[in-house]
Design goal:
alpha+beta, five-stranded antiparallel sheet, 16% strand
């Protein structure tokens, strides 16, 4: 890149079914094509410009601590991360001629390409090759999505809830009985035991002398 020049990056998207290695994203004078999402039928007939953004500051990349900080993470992601398909405001506007980044179609493979554009001259200075195809997931019908936790039926959820309540009551009763036993032991008066000692003195028998 030339010193003092101003650059920006264009992101082009197209469906893999429309891909061929020599598909151009510039005209004969190296000026980027301004093809839109509507003109290319969502990328099925060619590449459309999905996003335009400033060149990231590669000389001072973000710190790992900033990426882990909840207050700084959004700013870091905005500067270094491009989310494809996050804008639907331009989807139904046929007169929209700027970069349009609407949601991608389900179960469809797409390819992506970046080009470096000189803002002053309005021409491409560098480009990447088309990426390998990346396929979006197929949407599921809402009726087929199992919303029960752990794939359990409604009856199992009710039984589990009842058993949980009964277990709680049982534990609560046990704790109450234990507490009552402790309190009863503390309030019980100390028994005083008296040892009765009876002293018996032997009474000497009066011996009568019989005189014969």
């Amino acid at each position: 890149m030339s010193t003092g020049a101003s650059y920006e990056v264009y992101l082009y998207v197209m469906a893999d079914s429309a891909y061929h290695s020599r598909l151009p994203v510039t005209d004969n004078s190296s000026k980027p094509l301004n093809t839109t999402f509507q003109q290319t039928n969502g990328g099925l007939s060619g590449a459309y410009r999905a996003a335009t953004f400033n060149v990231p500051n590669c000389t001072s990349p973000p710190k790992l601590t900033d990426a882990a900080d909840a207050t700084k993470a959004p700013t870091v992601l905005t500067q270094y991360l491009i989310r494809v398909g996050e804008d639907d405001t331009c989807l139904y506007d046929p007169e929209f001629l700027e970069a349009c980044n609407p949601p991608l179609s389900q179960d469809t493979a797409y390819r992506f390409k970046y080009i470096l554009v000189d803002r002053t001259a309005g021409v491409m200075k560098d480009e990447t090759v088309w990426s390998h195809p990346i396929k979006t997931k197929k949407l599921k019908q809402s009726s087929t999505i199992d919303t029960w936790p752990g794939r359990r039926s409604g009856t199992m959820i009710v039984i589990t809830s009842i058993l949980s309540v009964l277990t709680f009551i049982l534990v609560l009763g046990f704790l109450a009985a234990l507490l009552q036993a402790v309190l009863t032991t503390e309030e019980m008066p100390t028994e005083t035991r008296y040892a009765s000692q009876i002293t018996q003195h032997a009474v000497p028998r009066i011996q009568e002398a019989a005189e014969l």
